[in-house]
């Protein structure tokens, strides 16, 4: 069980077997970063963490809904309003990841699931955007800039962009809990939080 104040996880959701799914949570005053292993089922790892820590909420970088036209609302079959406003990828382009994320959400109905957008948060926080370049290896300057805004200590520094993005998803959750997160999109179709 996590402390009431930080009873949520941030997750950068990757391909099922690629070793790119990362979960972040605060325990004993420190951030814990757990990354899936290559060729191991990331969904099983994440399910195990949700069962073990029983968080109140999860903030995940993956679509948790489909475009409205697919469920009889609107005419856009490819993007949700939130995707267009955030300039995010289409849930349809992300196909299997979208389906896995929705299935995970449905499997843990007692946990609040919120779609977080790390790149959107980087644009909102002065000082982060200058270092956020995922085409290059993660740099110390990017980690130092992020560390300046974190409300707890890191038990280890992020070693790749997946870990960095998971920390950003956690920060979206932190902002949400403080009433500072931006909600983008149409609530009936699906919101993205920044």
Which short descriptors sum up this protein?
194 residues; alpha/beta; Nucleotidyltransferase, domain 5; 6-stranded mixed β-sheet; two-stranded antiparallel sheet; 6 helices
Strands ordered across the widest β-sheet: 5-4-1-2-3-6
By CATH, the architecture is named 2-Layer Sandwich
The average pLDDT score comes to 95
Q: How many structurally independent domains?
A: 1
Secondary structure tally, helices: 6
- First-residue to last-residue Cα separation: 26 Å
Rg of Cα set: 16 Å
H and E order: EEEHEHHEHHEHEE
Q: What top-tier CATH class fits best?
A: Alpha Beta
Note the beta-strand portion: 15-25%
Shape: globular
What structural class do the secondary elements suggest? alpha/beta
Extended strand count: 8
CATH fold name: Nucleotidyltransferase, domain 5
Largest sheet: 6 strands, mixed
Q: How helical, in percent, are the residues? A: 25-40%
């Amino acid at each position: 069980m996590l402390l009431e104040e930080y009873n949520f996880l941030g997750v950068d959701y990757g391909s099922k077997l690629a070793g790119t799914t990362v979960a972040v949570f605060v325990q004993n005053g420190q951030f814990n970063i757990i990354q899936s292993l290559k060729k191991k089922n990331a969904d099983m790892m994440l399910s195990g963490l949700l069962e073990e820590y029983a968080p109140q909420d999860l903030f995940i970088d993956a679509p948790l809904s489909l475009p409205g036209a697919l469920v009889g609302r609107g005419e856009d079959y490819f993007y949700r309003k939130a995707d267009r406003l955030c300039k995010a990828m289409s849930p349809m382009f992300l196909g299997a990841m979208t389906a896995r994320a929705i299935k995970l959400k449905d499997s843990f109905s007692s946990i609040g699931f919120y779609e977080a957008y790390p790149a959107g948060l980087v644009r909102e926080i002065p000082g982060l955007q200058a270092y956020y370049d995922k085409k290059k290896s993660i740099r110390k300057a990017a980690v130092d800039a992020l560390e300046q805004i974190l409300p707890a200590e890191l038990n280890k520094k992020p070693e790749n962009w997946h870990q960095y993005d998971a920390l950003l998803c956690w920060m979206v959750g932190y902002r949400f809990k403080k009433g500072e997160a931006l909600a983008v999109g149409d609530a009936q179709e699906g919101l993205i939080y920044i």
